[in-house]
Amino acid sequence: MAGHIAFIGLGNMGSGMAANLVKAGHGVSAFDLSEAALAAAVASGSQRAASVSEAVKGAAVVVTMLPAGKHVRGVYAEEVFAAADSNPILIDCSTIDVASARAVAAQAEGHGLAMVDAPVSGGIAAASGGTLTFMVGGPAEAFARAEPILAKMGKAVIHAGDAGAGQAAKICNNMLLGASMVATCEAFVMAQKLGLDPQTFFDISSKASGQSWSMTSYCPVPGPVPTAPSNRDYEGGFAAALMLKDMKLAMEAAAAVDASVPMGAAAESLYQAFANLGGAGKDFSAIIKLLDGSWRS
Ligand code: NAD
């Protein structure tokens, strides 16, 4: 296979994304360290590669969807750069620290290769449904090459700026989301203690100035928003462990540029406490149970 897309990292998110590239008519050469992940990708139409290098040889596009910065640094430095023999556009969709994103992009440039960081907003359902939002960092020419590929996996592809800007947008957004969820939970718990019915408080606040995505899409109390994870015992949705990961990335980035983030820091320590108490696997809106004292792992 030549002129294909190499896809590295076919976990919860990558499997659906690769399947959408196959559906769009691309040849996809897939590699994952996990045999189960690789087998699932092959079942949905990708070709099995025996290594990162084998997947990347002859590829026109390389997409990575890996857990964290150390995996991205390792995969590119140890295998992708050496195997990239057809001038592919390199697209890292993982959520990683800004410093790693910038370091790997600089190495790519050193190898004469174009690269973008393109982390996503939207979870597993959006990955398989092809409705992700991509926030992209990199030079305009690299964005122009990546955009049509990303459009096959998402509903919006936004150029955020130079290398690392996609990751910066992602963690600033998620820091805001994490803090707004905690604030929304606090308000519901206090409203109830003051004798307000949660539905009534929702009806008022969702139309008043307290309105936010945390309230109107992921309402932390069951009832007002039937599709919110709170109605399914906080299963599915966006795991508190992943929110904690993003909050930690945000705190790291804030320290690096000396940004003052007291609300983000407070929220991060609450998600850490919730994870320590066994809540890591629940949707992040379950943090309301930490605040109202009802959490039992
Ligand atoms: P995941 O752990 O399910 O998948 C990651 C995959 O990478 C695994 O299958 C793992 O075996 C593979 N991998 C690790 N090292 C590798 C290597 N050296 N070579 C080949 N494969 C390797 O994680 P996920 O939920 O798919 O998330 C991927 C990324 O997307 C993360 O950065 C995450 O923060 C981000 N993200 C996840 C969600 C979500 O809802 N799950 C939402 C937005 C962003």
TrEMBL record:
Spell out the InterPro entries in the cross-references. 3-OH-isobutyrate_DH-rel_CS, 6-PGluconate_DH-like_C_sf, 6PGD_dom2, 6PGDH_NADP-bd, HIBADH, HIBADH-like_NADP-bd, HIBADH-related, NAD(P)-bd_dom_sf
Q: What sequence ranges are listed for the domain 6-phosphogluconate dehydrogenase NADP-binding? A: 5-161
Keyword Phosphoprotein included in the entry's annotation:
no
- The answer to keyword NAD applying to this record is yes
Question: Gene3D superfamilies from the xrefs?
Answer: N-(1-d-carboxylethyl)-l-norvaline Dehydrogenase, domain 2, NAD(P)-binding Rossmann-like Domain
Pathway membership, UniProt: Amino-acid degradation; L-valine degradation
Please list the residue ranges annotated as the 3-hydroxyisobutyrate dehydrogenase-like NAD-binding domain.
Answer: 164-291
Spell out the molecular function terms from Gene Ontology.
3-hydroxyisobutyrate dehydrogenase activity
What reaction is this protein's catalytic activity? Answer: 3-hydroxy-2-methylpropanoate + NAD(+) = 2-methyl-3-oxopropanoate + NADH + H(+)
Q: Which UniProt keywords apply?
A: Branched-chain amino acid catabolism, NAD, Oxidoreductase
Q: What is its EC number?
A: 1.1.1.31
Q: Which family does it belong to?
A: Belongs to the HIBADH-related family.
**Name of the molecule in the record:** 3-hydroxyisobutyrate dehydrogenase
List the source organism.
Answer: Sphingoaurantiacus capsulatus
Q: What is the lineage of its organism?
A: Bacteria, Pseudomonadati, Pseudomonadota, Alphaproteobacteria, Sphingomonadales
Supply the gene name.
Answer: mmsB
